[in-house]
Write a structure and sequence with these properties.
This protein is an alpha/beta fold and 238 residues long. 50% of the residues lie in helices and 16% in strands. It has one domain: Rossmann fold (3-Layer(aba) Sandwich), CATH 3.40.50.300. The strands form 2 sheets. It has a 5-stranded parallel sheet with strand order 2-6-1-7-8. It has a 3-stranded antiparallel sheet with strand order 3-4-5. A hairpin with a 2-residue loop joins β4 and β5. It binds 2'-deoxycytidine-5'-monophosphate. The site of 2'-deoxycytidine-5'-monophosphate has 14 residues, from α2, α6 and α10.
Length: 238
């Protein structure tokens, strides 16, 4: 069977990546965490002492840096690499979460990341999560999900994730960070976070991960069934 693109967008810490990862594993598709790429750019700029408003240096940095994913054989996870070195732990730290939305508003950064994401999904067969996947990166994605959840629920989930990595952050700080990021992400001029007209809304406030995964998989099956019924064989290359 030919393959489709599944776009999962939504607010920070709604469980997008956990859901997307499980859906990809179930279907044998590649999982691409587009947020990790913006986090990687943020880490690079910080480490090279490049001010976010120094556009010529930001553009040069985008040209110089190599953002890739490497599969960790032990965990099966795709880990973000910056210039060939795995930086997965650093990009998840709060210092990066606090700055990433400022970097991801920069049009040059968005253009470079969107181009790379489109290349990664060229052959279809990907589940990509982010903020603008269904609207800008793959407006032709066959399945589009828009995830949301109550902010306190999201903050508590995020706090647990950070605690697992020995980073203990008060829940109020996380709520503040999520609110700030939601605001910056949805009000920026360039490809803001918004629900695509054809995206299905999924509120995960009272849902378990398995239910979220099943919800998406049901949509995928329905789409594949309807495409096959209409004689569609899928597109290998777009
Ligand atoms: O998914 P995440 O929380 O790791 O994403 C980190 C930040 O990256 C998020 O606050 C906004 C930005 N982002 C974006 O602008 N567009 C995307 N497609 C994915 C993430």
């Amino acid at each position: 069977m030919r393959k489709i693109v599944i776009a999962i967008d939504g607010y920070s810490s709604c469980g997008k990546s956990t859901t997307a990862k499980a859906v990809a594993a179930e279907l044998g598709y590649a999982y691409i965490d587009s947020g990790a790429m913006y986090r990687g750019v943020t880490l690079y700029l910080l480490e090279h002492g490049i001010s976010f408003d120094d556009l010529p240096r930001v553009e040069q940095a985008l040209h110089d840096m190599h953002i890739t994913f490497k599969r960790n054989r032990k965990t099966g996870r795709n880990e973000l690499c910056l210039d060939g070195v795995i930086r997965e732990d650093e990009i998840r730290q709060m210092r990066i979460s606090n700055l990433v939305s400022e970097v991801s508003v920069i049009p040059a950064v968005r253009h470079a990341m969107v181009r790379q994401q489109q290349r990664m999904g060229r052959k279809r067969g990907v589940v990509m999560d982010g903020r603008d996947i269904g609207t800008t990166v793959f407006p032709d994605a066959e399945v589009k999900i828009f995830m949301t959840a109550d902010v306190l629920t999201r903050a508590l989930r995020r706090q647990e994730e950070l605690a697992e990595k020995e980073e203990h952050v008060p829940v109020e700080d996380i709520v503040e960070n999520l609110r700030k990021r939601d605001h910056l992400d949805s009000t920026r001029a360039e490809s803001p976070l918004r629900r695509a007209a054809d995206a299905v809304l999924l509120d995960t406030t009272h849902m378990m991960i398995d239910e979220q995964v099943d919800f998406v998989l049901e949509r995928v099956s329905a789409m594949l069934f309807s495409l096959a019924a209409n004689g569609w064989q899928g597109s290998e290359q777009k």
